[in-house]
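subagent[fold] <- orchestrator: predict structure for attached chain, return tokens only, no commentary.
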Amino acid sequence: MRLRSGVFASCCLLVQALGVGLFLRGFFPLPVRSLPRNAAVSEPPPEPPPAGLSSNWTKVPSPLFKKAVIMLIDALRDDFVFGLKGKQFMPYTTQLIERGTSHSFIAEAKPPTVTMPRIKALTTGSIPGFIDVIMNLNSPALLEDNLIWQAKTAGKRIIFYGDDTWVRLFPKHFAEYDGTTSFFVSDYKEVDDNVTRHLDHVLKREDWDLLILHYLGLDHIGHLSGPHSPLVGPKLSEMDNIIKKIHTSLLSKEGEVASPRLLVVCGDHGMSETGSHGGSSEGEVHTPLLFISSAFDRRNGPQKPAEHVQQTDLAVTLAIGLGLPISRNSVGKLLLPMVQQKTMREQLRYLHLNGFQLSRLLQENTPAYEKGKSWI
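subagent[fold] -> orchestrator:
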């Protein structure tokens, strides 16, 4: 009897250990990673030119936009822009979506829906894991290949104002910055005023290539009183006025240069019906992603619902738009509406670069991978 009890207890312990192992393997999966960042810049796939013609397929394409502004509104749910709140409190943004020169998407953020992992996803194109929830409290420098590092390496001047998580993730990357802390959740006014106060001055200047703004006020309102708080409407109106200020400023400068400018409006994550985030509810994972530029055709006719894409698609799309190499660990795909004004050959070139990068990532993470004899 004792022997049977001992065998049974041993089996129970073995099953328990196996269950814990399977749980940890699923909850903390091995990340998909390529080579280290110091080996990140590599040659794109060669493409033989037609007889008698030179080829530019081995070069990173020229940038589509002279300058870009990324305006990240923390905890911006998709229905805050595309729903009734957007129509009521964000009229300028709604006009751009419905009749302006813009492309609108709903980006899906993978859990955990907290700020630091989402910034990683936006800039690397990779999918962070739940271990990053712990790292969110004290974010170390990001050593993985990313859009910010590629831009700095290419000699672009980057200016940042907002959540100081960016400053910790990208030390020495910004030519100018002013970080704000996210821990005083009762403050939803000055935390944004400290970002906006720089705009009038920086938008008049021409000594930058990429401007990044991270607004925290909406997220703080969510934590205080939820997504249906009477404070949400005025905050959305404030953000709408800032979008108008940036957009009109970019348009006013375009007559002086040949290349158009780009404004990207996005959220890092949304918020649940109680105002929290970190999980996988629809309100937490769906965020708006807007690209606004005079390079796009003006919308007309009936409005189509915003297409659902992955948040990781932003990194590769911005890399192509700014003429930068695609981050090696990116699992995103190029958002084709962004390049639809280009020739078919140019569009194929962009897809060729994206396909090669994804194929290389697959090859380096799959031991049994066998490369085909030719590209399709």
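orchestrator: received. Logging for downstream: The chain has 15 helices and eight strands. The chain has a mean pLDDT of 86.
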